[in-house]
Every structure is written in structure tokens, then in C-alpha cells.
């Protein structure tokens, strides 16, 4: 299974067009939030529509700069993983949108206890899958979450969940400057960085006994 992880699109339609060949070449496009610049459903509809032209399958969550109505749109399209789980083949996807509270009070933020409940709800729906993949806009606290001020901007609820439950991959964005990979307990955490700036990550999940390959990509 080939997964393309994109996050923090912020309405960059030109980047979607530039990545069309890459999008087409993956089995699943995972969107880890901040789809829009304005936060509106109308803009999200345009952005998602552009991705749909090239994608075989889309799964994702809304971000903290997206209004809740963007999450509603993803849900209506059958793409949302916010407080939901979905099994594709033998891979279970579940997730949470928005972010934990920020100093600047962005459009969609949740208390840590809400985030914990959303993640748990989706996780339970993927029972029986061989590989567990959490899709979250916000990183877990302590992994690929350092801001330009060198503070940790991740979620404690997300961190605590993967410390207590078997999760193979944690896919996120939110903090653009923290793009990269890290290991937290037994979980590989991947922050794809800003798709608006041409960054995304290609992930290949092999069959039984095979590993997981990760490649960061930057569009020129």
C-alpha cells in the first residue's frame, strides 16, 4: 500500500496540480489537516475537488485553521477519520482533527480530554487490523513538534495514547518547521511539513513480514 501524506495545504491549488503525478501514483492520499486558507467549507470543497481529480482514495482530518464545517465536508464525502476508524485491506486508519489549545486561539481547537476521546473512538473501530495508523493534525507532544521558538507544540493526549496502545504510524502536520520523522515508544511519527511549500511524504507499507519505507519529497 502506497500512502501520500500531505498536510497544511492552506488552499495551495497550484501545488496540487504540480503534485498530480505523485498523487496518481499512490493508493491512498492522507490529508492531515489545514486544508484551507480561509477556513471555509467552500474553499475546502474546491481544494478537495482538485485532489479528487487525481486520487484513488482520500482519507483525512480537518486542521486547526479549518473551521468545523470543513470536518463536516470530509465526513459527508466519506473521507473523515475524525473520531472514526476505517480498515483498508489490513491497515486500520483512525484519527483526530483540529489541534490542542494554542496561544493564538485558532479556528478549531479541542481540550486534551476531547482529543483523547476522539482518538480512542476511532481506534476501537479498527480492531483486528494488522497495521494501526493514526492521522492527526497535531503531533504528539515530544515528537516532531518543536516550534520556531523551540517550544513543544504537540498534544499530551496524543502522546499518552500511543504510549499506552500499539500504533505503528502516527501521521501529522501542524508545525511546519518540525517536518521529519521520530520514534516515540514503538510508534513512527511522521510530520510531513507544509504542502503549501511543496513538502509531502511517500509511505510504502509492505505485506506481512515486510517493513515500512518512508520518503520525504519536496516539489521543485
The proportion of strand residues reads 25-35%
CATH superfamily: Metallo-dependent phosphatases
Helical percentage: 25-40%
Using only C-alpha atoms, the radius of gyration works out to 15 Å
Count of all domains: 1
Distance between the termini: 25 Å
The total strand number stands at 11
Widest beta sheet: strand line-up:
4-5-6-7-9-8
Helix count?
A: 6
| CATH T-level topology | Purple Acid Phosphatase, chain A, domain 2
Task: Give the integer mean of the pLDDT values.
Answer: 96
Q: What can you tell me about this protein's structure?
A:
This protein has six helices and eleven strands. It has 220 residues and is α/β, with parallel strands linked by helices. The chain has one domain (2-218): Purple Acid Phosphatase, chain A, domain 2. Helix 5 packs parallel to helix 6 (156-164). The longest helix is centred in the middle third of the chain and has 13 residues, at 112-124.
Topology:
Layout: E1 2-6, H1 13-18, H2 20-24, E2 28-32, H3 41-52, E3 58-61, H4 68-77, E4 85-88, E5 91-96, H5 112-124, E6 131-136, H6 156-164, E7 169-172, E8 180-184, E9 187-191, E10 199-205, E11 212-218
Parallel strand pairs: 1-2, 2-3, 5-6, 6-7, 7-9
Antiparallel strand pairs: 1-10, 4-5, 8-9, 10-11
Helix pairs in contact: 5-6
Short description:
With 220 residues, the chain is an alpha/beta fold. It has helices spanning 13-18, 20-24, 41-52, 68-77, 112-124, 156-164; strands spanning 2-6, 28-32, 58-61, 85-88, 91-96, 131-136, 169-172, 180-184, 187-191, 199-205, 212-218.
Note the main attributes of this structure:
220 residues; Purple Acid Phosphatase, chain A, domain 2; six-stranded mixed β-sheet; 6 helices
Amino acid at each position: 500500500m502506497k500512502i501520500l501524506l500531505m498536510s497544511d495545504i492552506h488552499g495551495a491549488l497550484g501545488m496540487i496540480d504540480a503534485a498530480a503525478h505523485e498523487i496518481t501514483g499512490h493508493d491512498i492520499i492522507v490529508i492531515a489537516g489545514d486544508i484551507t486558507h480561509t477556513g471555509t467549507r467552500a474553499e475546502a470543497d474546491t481544494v478537495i475537488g482538485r485532489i479528487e481529480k487525481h486520487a484513488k482514495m482520500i482519507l483525512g482530518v480537518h486542521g486547526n485553521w479549518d473551521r468545523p464545517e470543513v470536518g463536516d465536508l470530509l465526513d459527508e464525502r466519506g473521507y473523515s477519520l475524525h473520531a472514526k476508524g476505517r480498515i483498508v485491506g489490513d491497515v486500520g486508519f483512525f484519527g483526530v482533527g483540529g489541534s490542542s489549545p494554542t496561544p493564538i486561539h485558532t479556528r478549531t481547537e479541542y481540550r486534551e480530554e476531547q482529543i483523547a476521546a476522539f482518538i480512542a473512538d476511532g481506534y476501537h473501530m479498527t480492531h483486528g487490523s494488522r497495521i494501526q495508523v493514526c492521522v492527526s493534525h497535531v503531533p504528539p507532544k515530544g515528537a516532531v513538534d518543536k516550534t520556531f521558538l523551540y517550544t513543544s507544540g504537540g498534544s499530551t493526549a496524543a502522546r499518552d495514547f500511543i504510549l499506552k496502545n500499539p500504533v505503528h504510524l502516527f501521521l501529522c502536520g501542524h508545525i511546519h518547521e518540525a517536518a521529519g520523522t521520530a520514534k516515540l515508544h514503538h510508534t513512527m511519527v511522521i510530520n510531513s511539513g507544509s504542502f503549501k511549500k511543496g513538502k509531502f511524504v511517500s509511505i510504502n507499507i509492505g505485506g506481512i513480514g515486510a517493513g515500512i519505507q518512508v520518503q520525504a519529497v519536496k516539489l521543485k
